[in-house]
Design a protein that fits this description.
four-stranded mixed sheet, 219 residues, 39% helix, 2 domains
């Protein structure tokens, strides 16, 4: 009997450990929805508390955008809607976007970390509701892009990371990538994922070769 009890206890401990490990990078939803509004295109706008995702606007489903009251009342509201609507489309048409970014920008997107990325780096990945369906972006089959938490574990201070699968090390930049995605030394702010790059190009425009290629493909 004691053997059975020990087996059950051990199993419960293992299940508990798995749950903790699984949840380490999973996006938690502790946001409080204070008000809702249906936009003219049918999307749902949820006004949330200031602590929700550190006040950062984001999408939750293919039809729902969240932002704080201060953001919704700001002069930036319209441009933020443009950005987040790109993310809604990415959630609505994931296969289309996956194929597009592979064909136009040479990115492959993965739900799980590619083999070769060390576990200690995997554990630092910052969750992003707008990209979490396929958070691992690999450029030209070699360079893995993702955002990593710093010591403070803050969303706003997460740092983009590039892992070189061929050399097995973190690198700071790729000149060929900068030539495609940046202009005059100015690169997209959230360059750790092509979903974010595409949304930024749509919102603010860019003269980069990558922006021109994307615009031509979307015509």
């Amino acid at each position: 009997m004691w053997t059975v009890v020990l087996f059950i206890v051990s199993l419960l401990i293992l299940v508990g450990l798995f749950f903790v490990l699984f949840q380490t990078n999973a996006p938690s939803d502790t946001c409080k929805v204070l008000a809702t509004r249906t936009l003219e295109d049918g999307a749902l706008l949820e006004i949330v508390d200031d602590e929700c995702k550190e006040g950062l606007p984001h999408t939750t489903t293919s039809t729902t955008i969240r932002m704080t009251r201060s953001v919704a009342d700001s002069a930036r509201f319209d441009e933020i809607l443009v950005h987040e609507r790109v993310h809604l489309d990415q959630k609505t048409r994931p296969a289309f976007w996956k194929d597009l970014l592979k064909r136009v920008w040479a990115y492959d997107l993965y739900a799980s970390p590619p083999p070769g990325v060390p576990a200690e780096w995997v554990e630092t990945r910052r969750p992003n509701p707008d990209t979490d369906a396929a958070p691992w972006a690999v450029w030209r089959g070699r360079y893995v892009f993702f955002a990593a938490y710093g010591a403070d574990k803050k969303l706003k201070t997460a740092t983009p990371v590039i892992w070189d699968l061929e050399e097995g090390r973190r690198i700071e930049e790729i000149p060929e990538w900068r030539a495609q995605f940046c202009v005059g030394g100015k690169c997209p702010q959230q360059w750790e994922h092509p979903y974010e790059i595409a949304a930024e190009y749509k919102t603010h425009g860019s003269q980069s070769p990558a922006a021109a290629a994307l615009a031509a493909a979307l015509l």
